[in-house]
Amino acid sequence: MTVQSIDLSHPLDPFNISFYPGDPPYTCSPHATVPEHGYSVQALSVCTHTGTHVDAPSHFFAQAKSIDQIPLTSFIRPAIVVDVSQKVAPRGRITWDDLSLSIDDRPEAVIVLIRTDWCKHWGKPEYVNHPFLDADAARQLVARGVSAIGIDTLSPDETEGSANDFGVHQAILGAGGLIVENLRNLATIPEGALVNFVPLNLRGGDGSPVRAFAYVP
């Protein structure tokens, strides 16, 4: 059987990257080079929320599970893609009404991927002015058994705005769920595709960069 893959992660490029205000920047520099040492080694500086990444519950709750305590199977799920790209505006609020027609009566063991197409602004100043999910919509998802969401923006919560109380993070991670941020290419995922967002095995990590991708039979 031939399986196609769709890359859902942004490349990590120090010269073309977006990161949350206040987070440490990503750097990649040569430590050893083939001409000088006969081999190449690069030094990376990343935080647990660099680039396309997954948040563990311990990102907001000190006694909750860290990224290494979550079963690997939790990071491989069938996807439901909710397309709100025609409804969003800069710093626009995504409500439950925008999601409900696509979410009702779906299996619980899925990842709900919210497509805004804001990923087109990756690496640009306007990326921080992304649309965001209403906290009540996040609570509605949790009430229906959804334990993982992903979005193609910097955060599912508003970044440095009037609604910046992290209500979505509180709802999803507080229920023991997972949040994947800074995704891309959500427009290309067909119904029922399997999405992989396995993290690094970081002891005590509150999140991890991932190479997210979708399997398409």
Automatic annotation (TrEMBL):
Entry's transmembrane regions? none
- Molecular function in Gene Ontology: arylformamidase activity
Q: Which Gene3D superfamilies does the UniProt entry name for this protein?
A: Putative cyclase
Fetch the InterPro entries from UniProt: KFase/CYL, KFase_sf
Gene Ontology biological process terms, A to Z:
L-tryptophan catabolic process to kynurenine
SUPFAM superfamilies in the record: Putative cyclase (SSF102198)
Query: Pfam families from the xrefs?
Result: Cyclase
What family is reported? Belongs to the Cyclase 1 superfamily.
Name listed for the protein in its UniProt record: Cyclase family protein
Q: Which organism is it from?
A: Armillaria ostoyae (Armillaria root rot fungus)
Higher taxonomy: Eukaryota, Fungi, Dikarya, Basidiomycota, Agaricomycotina
